[in-house]
């Protein structure tokens, strides 16, 4: 915890507790840390998602568990319609929205969650099955921006990412602390449940949670290097204002292809205000049109118009491109950045690129 706080994790924080072994262990560990370090204790947040019969009862159990170790807990209730498909993703989004709203209202900037080494490995395999690229396969970060758009300044902290589940349960048994088993974890309808059932076969092939987690970590470092290069390119080759952006197409074309694609995607997202990047296939086609000179009078993508800049705004010479929002499109009501942003890139990366210059 001392290392995490030195790296920028905020405290005091809230801890997300479902009642499962991982989150209950994290709750006890954080409570123990606060007592040992003579710091303010964390607050506990649990969500009654209403997706199964005992969800309200489980939320009350978590509140009771927290109270028994001297922590204050709040049960948040999801009142939306029960999703008919993609239940896992919808439930996850609902949980983060509820907790994000609570954190914002109570001016607490960090949510501590109990993702473990196995969660890291499972996420890697699930995204691999969906055909994710480098960013999707990269490791979850120990400290990261809040995973929902519209909550600037909030962060997620994952202290257990290098720990396996078994030792955490050994810890709970030693503490004589009970926990809940979510039947959804064994429901064959869900991809993650199927994957957990297949772990013995995967480990027999040498695909252990440790090795998969290490692979995700290696890809995470590669992603950070590309992010830094992209930040440097944007600082040299882009200018942003309320009307949109101007891009130096010459520098964009001269950059390594992956860096150029990332810079173009970041620019489109910044100007359009969209939370997600444009589809990769369409992004590549636009990039190729810029690179080979076939853009002509312009093209649209991701809610933006990309076209040669008027002579009066050629900040980078005749190769300047203007990126503006499509007519009739407005920015989302909530800000889309979940971390400080400057000139289209996270402030952390912008500072690094500025130092290099």
Quick summary of this structure?
With about 350 residues, this protein is α/β, with parallel strands linked by helices. Helices cover about 45% and strands about 15% of the residues.
What does this protein look like?
The chain folds into two domains: 2-207, Rossmann fold (3-Layer(aba) Sandwich), CATH 3.40.50; 229-356, no CATH class. It has helices at 2-6, 21-37, 55-68, 87-105, 117-129, 134-137, 165-174, 191-197, 199-204, 209-237, 249-254, 257-272, 280-292, 347-356, and strands at residues 14-16, 43-48, 73-77, 110-112, 143-145, 155-157, 238-241, 244-248, 299-301, 304-308, 315-318, 320-325, 341-342, 345-346. It is elongated, with a radius of gyration of 23 Å. The longest helix is centred in the middle third of the chain and has 29 residues, at 209-237. Helix content is 47%, strand content 15%.
Largest sheet: 6 strands, mixed
Sequence stretches where pLDDT stays below 50 over 5 or more residues? 333-357
Kindly name the structural category: alpha/beta
Q: Class of the largest domain, according to the CATH hierarchy?
A: Alpha Beta
Please write out the topology:
Layout: H1 2-6, E1 14-16, H2 21-37, E2 43-48, H3 55-68, E3 73-77, H4 87-105, E4 110-112, H5 117-129, H6 134-137, E5 143-145, E6 155-157, H7 165-174, H8 191-197, H9 199-204, H10 209-237, E7 238-241, E8 244-248, H11 249-254, H12 257-272, H13 280-292, E9 299-301, E10 304-308, E11 315-318, E12 320-325, E13 341-342, E14 345-346, H14 347-356
């Amino acid at each position: 915890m001392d290392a995490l706080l030195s790296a920028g994790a905020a405290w005091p924080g809230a801890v997300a507790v479902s009642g499962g072994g991982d989150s209950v262990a994290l709750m006890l560990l954080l409570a123990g840390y606060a007592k040992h370090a003579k710091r303010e204790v964390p607050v506990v947040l649990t969500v009654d998602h209403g997706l199964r019969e005992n969800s309200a009862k489980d939320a009350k159990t978590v509140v009771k568990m927290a109270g028994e170790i001297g922590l204050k807990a709040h049960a948040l209730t999801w009142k939306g319609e029960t999703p008919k498909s993609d239940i896992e993703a919808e439930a996850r989004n609902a949980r983060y929205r509820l907790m994000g709203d609570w954190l914002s209202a109570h001016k607490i900037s960090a949510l501590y969650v109990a993702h473990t080494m196995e969660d890291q490995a499972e996420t890697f395999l699930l995204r691999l099955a969906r055909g994710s690229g480098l960013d999707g396969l990269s490791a979850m970060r120990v400290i990261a921006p809040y995973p929902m758009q519209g909550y600037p300044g909030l962060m997620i902290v994952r202290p257990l990412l290098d720990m396996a589940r078994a030792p955490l349960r050994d810890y709970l048994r030693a503490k004589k602390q009970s926990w809940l088993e979510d039947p959804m974890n064994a429901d064959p309808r869900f991809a993650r449940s199927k994957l957990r059932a297949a772990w013995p076969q995967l480990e027999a092939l040498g695909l252990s949670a440790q090795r998969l987690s290490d692979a995700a970590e290696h890809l995470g470092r590669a992603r950070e290097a590309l992010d830094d290069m992209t930040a440097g390119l944007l600082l040299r080759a882009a200018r942003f204002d309320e009307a949109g952006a101007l891009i130096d197409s010459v520098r964009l074309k001269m950059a390594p292809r992956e860096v150029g694609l990332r810079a173009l995607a970041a620019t489109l997202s910044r100007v359009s205000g969209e939370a997600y990047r444009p589809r990769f296939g369409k992004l590549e086609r636009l990039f190729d049109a810029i690179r080979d000179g076939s853009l002509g009078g312009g093209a649209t993508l991701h809610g933006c118009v990309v076209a040669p800049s008027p002579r009066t705004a050629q900040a980078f010479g005749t190769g300047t491109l203007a990126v503006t929002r499509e007519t009739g499109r407005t920015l989302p009501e909530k800000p889309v950045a979940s971390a400080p942003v400057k000139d289209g890139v996270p402030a952390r990366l912008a500072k690094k690129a500025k130092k290099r210059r």
